[in-house]
Automatic annotation (TrEMBL):
Lineage, opening ranks: Bacteria, Pseudomonadati, Pseudomonadota, Betaproteobacteria, Burkholderiales
Residue stretches making up the EAL domain: 24-276
Keyword terms: c-di-GMP, Cell membrane, Hydrolase, Membrane, Transmembrane, Transmembrane helix
Protein's UniProt keywords contain Transmembrane helix: yes
Catalysed reactions, as listed in the record: 3',3'-c-di-GMP + H2O = 5'-phosphoguanylyl(3'->5')guanosine + H(+)
Protein topology in the membrane: Multi-pass membrane protein
Descriptive protein name: cyclic-guanylate-specific phosphodiesterase
Main location: membrane
Organism, as annotated: Herbaspirillum rhizosphaerae
Subcellular localization: Cell membrane
Length: 290
C-alpha cells in the first residue's frame, strides 16, 4: 500500500514543480517585463558639500519595484542587464525618470545637479550619451546639471572611453569615476582621461579612524586626486568622525547614511529645500580659507 502512495506523492510533487516552472519567467524575462511595465523607480541620495553641510545635488539610484511592494537593489539586477544588452534601455529609463521627477527643480535651480550611473557598455559605445541628449532636449535642463558616473570597467577600452568622455565634456556634462580605488587604473591612465571628479569607494571611507592596514590608503587617494586636480566625492560616509576627517583633508563632497540614504523623490525634494541653504557646521567654515 505504501509504494503506490509514495509514487502518487512523487508524481504530485513533480507535477507541481512543472506547473510552477511553466508559470515562472526567467529572471531576464522578468526584468524585460519590468522595464516594459515601468516597474523601475529611482531613489535619490543627497550629495553634501562637506565644508558647509549644504545639499547641492543628488545621485540617482535605481530600484526595482516588485509587485508585492518590495524594492530590489541594483546589485541584484544590473549585472543581468549588463550581460544581456538591456542596460541601454535601463539608462534611458533612468534619465527619463530623472527628468520627470526633478525637471521643475532642475529648471528653477541651475546650480542643482543629478549624478547618473552609466554602465561600462554606455561608455564603450557612446550610445548612453545620445539617449541622455534626447531625454534632455527641450526640457530647460542644462547638460551641466547631469553628472555622469562611470566605473573603471568602462575604461578598459581606453580609446573608446576617451572618445565618449571627451564628447560628454564638450556637451557640458561633468564626468566622475565611480568606486575609485577598487579598479586597476594607474595614475597615468587616469591622467589621460578627461575627468572632473573621483568618487572614493566606501570601502576606503569605512577604514577611516580604524586600525585596518588599508586605513592610510584613503589619504593617499585624496592626495593623488588633488594632484590630478580632480574634485573629490566620498561615498558611504556613515559617521561624524569620518566626515570631520574628510573635511580636514579638504574633500569637497560627501554622500552617505550620516546625511541621508537614497530616498523617494518626494522625500528628496523636501530634504533639498530644507538643506540647500548654507549653515556652517563649525564656527569657522573651511570655505573661508580658500
Ligand atoms: P554606486 O554608484 O557606487 O552607489 C553607491 C551605493 O552605496 C548605493 O547602493 C547606495 O545606496 C549605497 N550607499 C550610499 N551611502 C551609503 C552608506 O553610508 N553606507 C552604505 N553601506 N551604503 C551606502 P545601491 O543603490 O544598492 O547601488 C549599487 C550600485 O548599483 C551603484 O553603486 C551603481 O554602481 C549601480 N547602479 C545604481 N543605479 C544604477 C543605474 O541607474 N544604472 C547603472 N548602470 N548602475 C546603477
Ligand atoms: Mg554611483
Ligand atoms: Mg560608487
Ligand atoms: Mg558601487
Amino acid at each position: 500500500l505504501f509504494l503506490p502512495i509514495g509514487i502518487l506523492m512523487a508524481a504530485l510533487v513533480i507535477g507541481l514543480m512543472l506547473f510552477r516552472m511553466r508559470n515562472r519567467l526567467s529572471p531576464l524575462d522578468e526584468l524585460i517585463a519590468a522595464i516594459k511595465r515601468h516597474q523601475l523607480v529611482v531613489h535619490y541620495q543627497p550629495i553634501i558639500e562637506l565644508a558647509s553641510g549644504r545639499c547641492i545635488g543628488a545621485e540617482a539610484l535605481l530600484r526595482w519595484q516588485q509587485p508585492d511592494g518590495e524594492l530590489l537593489r541594483p546589485g541584484l539586477f544590473i549585472p543581468l542587464a549588463e550581460e544581456s544588452d538591456l542596460i541601454g534601455d535601463i539608462t534611458g529609463q533612468v534619465i527619463d525618470m530623472v527628468v520627470r521627477d526633478l525637471q521643475s527643480l532642475l529648471v528653477k535651480d541651475h546650480s542643482f545637479y543629478v549624478a547618473i550611473n552609466v554602465s561600462a557598455d554606455d561608455v564603450k559605445t557612446g550610445r548612453g550619451l545620445d539617449t541622455i541628449q534626447r531625454a534632455l532636449a527641450d526640457t530647460g535642463i542644462g547638460n551641466h546639471q547631469i553628472l555622469l558616473e562611470a566605473t573603471e570597467r568602462g575604461f578598459v577600452d581606453a580609446t573608446s572611453a576617451r572618445l565618449t568622455l571627451r564628447r560628454a565634456k564638450e556637451l557640458g556634462h561633468m564626468v566622475a569615476i565611480d568606486d575609485f580605488g577598487t579598479g586597476y587604473s594607474s595614475l597615468s591612465s587616469l591622467q589621460r582621461l578627461p575627468l572632473d571628479a573621483v568618487k572614493i569607494d566606501r570601502i576606503f571611507i569605512n577604514t577611516i579612524g580604524t586600525n585596518a592596514p588599508t586605513s592610510s590608503v584613503v589619504s593617499h587617494i585624496i592626495t593623488m586626486a588633488k594632484t590630478l586636480q580632480l574634485s573629490i566625492f566620498a561615498e558611504g560616509v556613515e559617521t561624524q568622525s569620518q566626515a570631520d576627517y574628510l573635511r580636514q583633508l579638504k574633500v569637497e563632497y560627501g554622500q552617505g547614511w550620516l546625511f541621508s540614504m537614497a530616498i523617494p523623490v518626494g522625500e528628496f525634494i523636501s530634504y533639498y529645500l530644507k538643506n540647500r541653504e548654507l549653515y556652517p557646521l563649525e564656527s569657522a567654515s573651511p570655505r573661508d580659507e580658500n
